[in-house]
Each structure stands twice: as C-alpha cells, then as structure tokens.
Amino acid sequence: MARRCFVAHPRVSCVTLATLPTPLEAGGKLQSGANLWVKRDDLTGLGVGGNKARKLEFLCAEAIDNDATCLVTVGAAQSNHCRMTAAAGARLNLPTHLVLSGEKPKNLEGNQMLSAMFGAHLHHTGLAASDWSNLELARAELTEKLIRDGQRPHSIPIGGSTAVGAIGYTVAFDEIISQCSLQNFVADAIVFTTSSGGTHAGLVAGLVRARANDPQKVLPKIIGIGVAKGVALNTNRVVELANETLTLLGESVHATIADVIIDASYMGADYAIPTQAAADATTWAAHRGAWVLDPVYSAKGFSGLLGLDANGDFGVDSNIVFIHTGGLPSLFVMH
After folding, report:
1. Per CATH, the architecture of 53-160 is what?
2. What are the tens digits of pLDDT across the range 275-310?
3. CA distances from 201 to 168, 171, 231, 282, 332 (A)
C-alpha cells in the first residue's frame, strides 16, 4: 500500500524503494581550485542502484493508487530506468513490461540480463536508441494491447519523466541542501546529466520552492549536461514539467526559463554513443574516488563538469556538487 509522503506534500503518495539519504562525499579539488562533492545516487539500493529509484517511489505509488496490475515503460537497450522499473516491479509484485530499442540479442547482458532476472517481459522493437518518438509509440501500442487483454497497466514514459516522477528530485534537492549545511558549506552549483528532463525538472522545482520559502538564502545553480537531442535540449519542456511538479505539490510559485541551464556540448554524436571525453572522465573519476561511471549517461555528465571547470566556470574554493546517477551494469556492455 502506498503511503503519504509528507516530506514532499501530504497529498502525494510514495512507496519506499530507495535507501535514503544517499551519501554526499568530498571529492577533493578540481583543476580550478573548486571543491568537488559527489552525491551518490548510484547507491539508492534498488536493483543495483541509480537515480531512477527516487522517481519510481512516486510513480509506483501512483500505479498502486490507480489499482494497476502491471507496469509498462520504455528506453534504450541498456536503459538504467528500465532495469530499475523491473526491480521496482519485482519488489512490489507488479509484472513489468519493458519496450526496448534494438533487436533481441542472442545473449542478454548488462541491464537486460538484470531486467530479465527481475522477471520483466522484454519487448525489443528494432528501433534506434535515439528514436524516442517511435519508442514512445511502441509503448503506447503495448499499453493499449494490455488493456484489451484485460490488464490495468500503469504506463511510464522514457526516464520516468512526469510531474509525479519529478517529485523525487524535488525532495532530493532539499536533501542535498541539508547535507551541504551539515558539512558546513554552501553549494554553488549542482551538476548532473539530463536527457528526458525529469530529474532536471524536479531539481528546478526544488530550487524555486526553496527560493520562495527564503528569498535571502544562497542557492546553487542547477546545471544539466544534455546527452540526448530533443527533450534534453528543450528548456521550455523542463520549465513546463517543473511547474507541473510545483502545482502537484500545492505551490503557487513558478519556474522560468532563467532557472534552466542545459549544456549539450558534451553529448557527442547522439544519445547512447560514447565519447572520448566521457572515457577520460570515467578514468578520472575511478582514479580520484573509485566512482564508477557509465559511458551513456553519468560519464558524459561528469565530462561536462570537468569541461566547465577547465573553461573557468567554477571559482577557486567554490563548491560543486555532482549527482552520480549510477549506470554500472551498462559499463560491462558499452565499453
């Protein structure tokens, strides 16, 4: 049974899937002299961990509240979101259907292997990982088929990026600010990887809410490193989703385009295509703090942080928080 999440809003339901709060670790000095901090959302604990656990706590509560009989979602062949949705389905005894890019492989590896271990039904589409519009159409078609078959599916878009899912990162924003305070520093920027926009929108909603509650408080910039074309580069969509999230939380304040920063300089050719900068960032993170990044998502985001630092965006002794979103399983497939 879903419970009420009073830390977000008493009318919002949530289920416990993640081990929270995740650690905020000191990462030493960057090239510029800025202080690096790593928010370990790779350690959320659900199905090998990752940032999607925060969204799924609210998305799965929504499914339970709607008496869903199964979950449906969609993503790239090695989607961390899909793997974590499968894990959530196993935890909550909700059969899970995953609509995936690519052809069915001879042997399941990485996130697909884990998703199958969690009992998910894998539906391979043959589509490219970057073809989000047709992947979403395939999700809609499968959802309609399940309804015709008498099921009550709860259908979740790519990345779990709805206003309900974004609440997970509105709560996470408050968690980060609290942890910074406990460690006696103020964050100047929060840097993270953005693609479908839900994590980004949730953080922006958290920023806007905190600013309204205390206009004098010093709050960090929210900097998304874009790794997919389309939605990830659409600042208007992030603003829209952030405002939908604020409305769900009963807030009367609104985000604006000025609250959304997206830097797509580190994406490379397209989504799910590794870059040399990401490979270099993976090595840097492993050598510096034994942080394990994945080539599709977190490594590109961290390469963006290192690039911004090298370009002089961060001042000496400033405090930069990087949200480590996880993605370990795909490292063993896409290396």
Report:
1. 3-Layer(aba) Sandwich (3.40)
2. 999 999 999 999 999 999 998 899 999 999 999 999
3. 10, 12, 12, 26, 30
